[in-house]
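## tool: complex_structure
## caller: assistant
## args:
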Amino acid sequence: MKNLKNYVNKEMTDESMNDFTRKLIHAKFDQEQKDEWAARLAEEQQVHRSPSTGAKVRRFRSPLIVAIAAAIAILMVAVPLFYSGGTSSHDQLADALLVETRLANPITRKGEIDESQMRLQMADAYNQFLYPQAIELGKQLVQSPTSQGQDFLFLGLSYLYEGQFEEAITHLSAVSQHPANGQNLEQESRWFLSLAYVKVGKLEEARNELRQIVEKEHWPSQKAVQLLDQLNQ
Amino acid sequence: MTALNSPLDSPYQSDQALSPSLRNYIEQAIDQLSIDKKYKEDGLRQLYQRISRQVKQHVNPSEAHKEEGIRQIIYKLAEKEVLKDQQAALKNFGLSEAAFNDMLRQLQQGDKSLFEKIFLSHFQDCRNFLKYRYKASDEDAYDASMEAMLTFCKRLKEGKIAYGNLRFLFTRMAGQIYLKWIKKQLPQESIEGLEIPEKPEELDRESMAILNIAWSKLCQDCSGLLKAFYYEGIPLKDIASLRGKSASAIRKQKQRCMEKLQTLFAEHFQNNS
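## result:
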């Protein structure tokens, strides 16, 4: 911190002393707050700053390394990002489409498909927007030897609406690998997978899924075109 | 919840301009959608009023005898209103506007529990966003998300962030903090309420340890006063009235406490070096 020496040697004007005291106190309590949140993240969610050391990384890298890294990034991945217009528009569009195209779970107590109590409970939880409950039930369903593609789909959707996008991607990707899937499930999972990719910023993966929806004229191809356009802007 | 016939029994402050059967259909739709499980009392009442307004606009009272058709229309209207709230909640970490206002009130009263519950549960999403969007390292993404959370908390307390799209604002703030840290050019667009502060000057680990020792040696009166004024931003005249002292007495006390902290810090600093 600048002026630390002057502070220690009491060589400061009243105004500088006031400013410096303010900075010291902010540094202290900001750090305490961050430490408290870090401890809670570690304890409650097993989220750690660094799995190995916990030491702070250097922020200011050598200009040469920065230049080389930037050049590689531009060549390899970053060019489309510069033309993407930021994340706001496509991210917001993905949010809106998530709501607009939300599927209802077709399993009902009165319906033909009365598979199991747990599946019914999961459908109820999902349909009532109780995603944490749906996730708990869905996790058990997909572990079962008789698990179905729709179990993966609705578990993926529950994760998606709960904001756990990586988990959503894992389970939505698994739908297409399930042998009992019909075309509808595959189309639906592909669409929501593309939205999940947008949400985590994996835009190239999102584009790939959306292109397939558009090329095969699958559901909902018009919305896929809309989102693809936004991603390509 | 069961559908209620008497407006006196209704928890929604039923709209008396609507016929009892239409009011009943609205309550049945709310019941069927299990909306009551997702809303607090205020939110439920507001939702009911919005559905009532929609019903007045879209349902012809002279056709109220077409019971099933009307029932379906009202169900669809209710579903649409719930979806609107879902959309808003998706953009706002699952918070309704009423819940957001509760969180603000709590924050301003010094209670961070709701803020922490919400933002800590989305911390990892924000970190992932920085990693995927900006190719940030794990540690940089963690630090920038943490800084964003702290800044967001302060801005909320100051009333500088409004309900709308908190998820977008939070991740964008973390992104801009990260970009500023690595000295990349900031995006051209600016977002209201999202001025990114200069990176706070960091105190090295040894100086922080010395500061903590010096702070622990201050009397409680001094540490409380300095924290209230410098960190919580409470004006001296307010601190004075809270403590039943005159503003000038508090100003002098603050000066003495500041000098005491400096002396304690300097002693330990010199002992250390």
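## assistant note: Chain A touches chain B through 63 residues (CB under 8 Å). Chain A has eleven helices and no strands. Handing back to user.
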